[in-house]
Amino acid sequence: MIYIGWILHKNGIQQKIQYRIPKGKIAYSDLNTPGKTMFSKRYKITGKPDYIVNNNNRFIPVEIKSGYYTQPQKNHILQLATYCQLIEENYGTFTPYGILVYKNQDFKIPFNPSLRFELESVLSRMKKEIKSKNVSLNHNDPRKCRHCSMRVYCKDKLA
Q1: The pTM is what?
Q2: Dihedral of the CA atoms 140, 146, 152, 157 (nearest 10)?
Q3: Which of 68, 116, 122, 154 could, after both became Cys, cross-link 135 (CB 3.0–4.6 A)?
């Protein structure tokens, strides 16, 4: 583990400052070098958060985004919730929240019962759509289409 009090360097950039890493020890990182993919047996999902910080035996996922936002984006919240779920299963511990780091501000997102239920609902809906091979478009952004993991199933591609 790397103690956060130390300055982390990558190509001369001070990551602690750049990514506004919270207090604690880095238990996992996927930014400096590729991290190990986490797997959920319960939900059959995988993921790799940017960082996991161990703060008093609470493992907190930190997801760094390149955009400027005044409110956390729904897709980012669900991505962070997925990481909270993966941490709970892989570390065997309760994850109270995750952190979204945007260029202009950070958001602490509670992994509360409401978000847990929403994550389960979305995952269930996704599995049904994949199984039926009837995935529907839920945005109007061609850039998202080009990199979408559901592209192979989607009949409404924009790009």
Answers
A1: 0.80
A2: 30
A3: 154
